[in-house]
Design brief:
The chain has a single domain, classed as 3-Layer(aba) Sandwich (Leucine Aminopeptidase, subunit E, domain 1). By secondary structure, it is an alpha/beta fold. It starts with a strand and ends in an 8-residue tail after the last helix. It has a 6-stranded mixed sheet, sandwiched between helices. The chain contains 5 helices and 6 strands.
């Protein structure tokens, strides 16, 4: 699909109009991509996040990007993996949909996602990729914005899992494989 792609990179260096931060519910920074985004954006991001009062798992909040190339950051707290029978898939899908709806509401044309909940929150990558791609592709099928969505993976291994999952569910022939 020309509107969606998977790549390996550093989301803090993204040239998208908005990037997604796999935040915690306080929105005040943390480990992994959350800490990297806060560090790259500078102290102004933390100051703005303090005014938001946190965010529930599965929801999303928008801030400015400050020192990032991205104009906006969409913060979404993902679920902590507890075995898969505690609503984790529904909460993770809600993270992706909430970000996409927020991007659409703000007229954001390009959006880069990280792999939500697959770091310190322990969500198994193959399951997370399936949930993420179903949510993203389902949204894009019915909405004009964002015009371009990318999954920015921190490692080639993660990107390969996302590519294999995309190929399994969405590639109708060899020419469509990622």
């Amino acid at each position: 699909m020309e509107r969606f792609s998977i790549l390996v990179g550093d989301i803090t260096q993204s040239d998208a109009e908005a990037i997604v931060n796999a935040a915690n519910t306080t929105l005040l920074g943390g480990a992994g991509v959350d800490g990297a985004i806060h560090a790259a954006a500078g102290p102004e991001l933390l100051a703005e996040c303090r005014t938001l009062g946190g965010c529930e798992t599965g929801q999303a909040r928008l801030t400015r990007g400050y020192r990032l190339r991205a104009k906006y950051v969409l913060h979404t707290p993902g679920p902590i993996w507890r075995g898969g029978e505690h609503g984790e898939a529904e909460a993770l899908a809600s993270c992706y949909r909430s970000c996409l709806l927020l991007a659409e509401a703000h007229g954001i044309r390009t959006l880069d996602f990280c792999s939500i909940s697959t770091g310190v929150y322990g969500y198994p990558l193959p399951q997370a990729a399936t949930v993420a791609l179903r949510a993203i592709m389902g949204f894009l099928a019915d909405h004009a914005l964002p015009e371009r969505v990318r999954m920015v993976c921190h490692t080639e291994r993660a990107a390969e899992v996302y590519r294999q999952t995309w190929n399994l569910w969405y590639a109708e022939d060899k020419g469509q494989r990622m």
